[in-house]
C-alpha cells in the first residue's frame, strides 16, 4: 500500500530563528512537510497562491499583514487551506479572534515542541485544536454569555480599516500605504479619517497605541 502524501505546510513567522525551529519539528515527522516559508502576512498570501499548501501556520504578530488578517483573507480566497495560529500570547482574546478569522486552532510558541505536531494532525482531521487554557476560556466565556444573555460583540472596524490602521501604526506614509494596497492616497486618507472617528481618536499616536493594545503590532 502506498504511503499517504504528507501534509504540505506553509510556515509564516517574521523571526527566522522561530521558523527554523518550527521547521525542524515539522520536517522530522513523516506525514508533515514544509513547502514554503514567509516572513510577513502579505508574503504568506503570495506563497499560498504559489504553493497551494494543505495547511498554513501563521504567527499573529507579523509586518504588513498580521497572521489574523492573512487568515481572514486565506479563509475567503482558499477555503480548502486549513489554518493554525502560532503565537507567544497566551491570551483568550486572541484565541477567539483567531477562531473567528477561520483558524482551526491556536498553538503557543512556548510549547510548540509539545503541541504543534498534534495540532497539525488534528487540524487536518477537521478537528479544532484547543490548548488547555483555551478550553477553560471557552467554557467560561460560554457560561458568562449564557448567564447574561449577551451576544458576542461585533467588530468595530472593517478588514480594510484594520489593514490601514496596522500600516499607519508601523509608520508608513499615506503614499506608501496607497502603493502597498494599490489604492489612491485619497482613499487611504478617507479610511484613516473613518478610523479616527469610529475609535474616538485624534492622531497617529493614539492609533498606534490602539494597534499595540489590540495586538496588530508589537510594542
UniProtKB/TrEMBL annotation:
Q: Which PANTHER family match?
A: TRANSCRIPTIONAL REGULATORY PROTEIN NARL-RELATED, TWO-COMPONENT RESPONSE REGULATOR
Q: Which Pfam families match?
A: GerE, Response_reg
Q: What is this protein called?
A: DNA-binding response regulator
Q: Which UniProt keyword terms apply here?
A: DNA-binding, Phosphoprotein, Transcription, Transcription regulation
- Which GO annotations describe the biological process of this protein? phosphorelay signal transduction system; regulation of DNA-templated transcription
Coiled coil feature spans: none
Instruction: Report domain Response regulatory positions.
Output: 8-124
Q: InterPro entries per the record? A: CheY-like_superfamily, NreC/VraR/RcsB-like_REC, Sig_transdc_resp-reg_C-effctor, Sig_transdc_resp-reg_receiver, Tscrpt_reg_LuxR_C, WalR-like
Tell me the superkingdom of the source.
Bacteria
Can you give the residue ranges of the HTH luxR-type domain? 150-215
User: At what positions is 4-aspartylphosphate found?
Assistant: 59
Q: Which GO terms describe its molecular function?
A: DNA binding
